[in-house]
Amino acid sequence: MPVTSADGASAELILVRAPAPLPGSPYLLWLPALGVAARHYLPLAQALAGLGVGVALHEWRGLGSSDRRAGRRCDWGYRQLLDDIDASASAAAVAWSGGRWWVGGHSLGGQFACLVAARAPVAPAGILLAASGAPYWRCFAHRNWVRLAYLAAPWLARLVGYLPGRRIGFGGNEARGVISDWAATGRTGNYGGQDIDEDLERLLAIQRAPVLALRMTGDWLVPAASLDFLLGKMPDAQALAEVLAGRPGTDAAHFGWMKQPGEVADRFAKVVAGA
Question: CB–CB of 10/89 below 8 Å?
């Protein structure tokens, strides 16, 4: 489904419908990790659809089907990413008219899922997180190196015109504004961004939708402290955090679970069915 944002940017929203929906026709708006195109979550979406949960896969601006690419003359930040998600949420609500909606995401997408729930005029039934936590530098074992990265990444993005994530092995080719806002959260622990007038921290503090957070064994990008810090921003939300150890012969770390998402899909579907 084509989706157009407030400033005219467009992308495709991938809809995966459940052949035998659970009662209430629940659907999940899923937000990818930084630098990961929506199509890479098709195995997760298909597994959830087989369990009765429809899925709408959001596309990040600058990736996959998006008509924008980060560069010196094309920049955006968290404000525009939130607008894009709003457009996807509205389109998914039309596609599943009357269905109960959930929001979830992987890594950065999970952080934005919490922000989406906090900002939504109609609260979602719940939030589903996979390998997601806040990037605050104090949550990491090698905290000084992480803090240095939050200083270096915006500088590199300004120098090149965008962050060359494909070259340095982190994310995709990311817009300067996105990296600036991301690094600011990493340094301060607070969510915000240029041209964002809302007090995102205050909205998170009163967010009440329940949360299921799945953390992966061996995921150094999301240590326990990182997830705890993110969940701690939503004290009024009932939160359940679980650790998935993975199955023999599989990699359950930050990205490896995407190859065999059955366990994640099973856990998500059980929560949705029991809501």
Answer: no
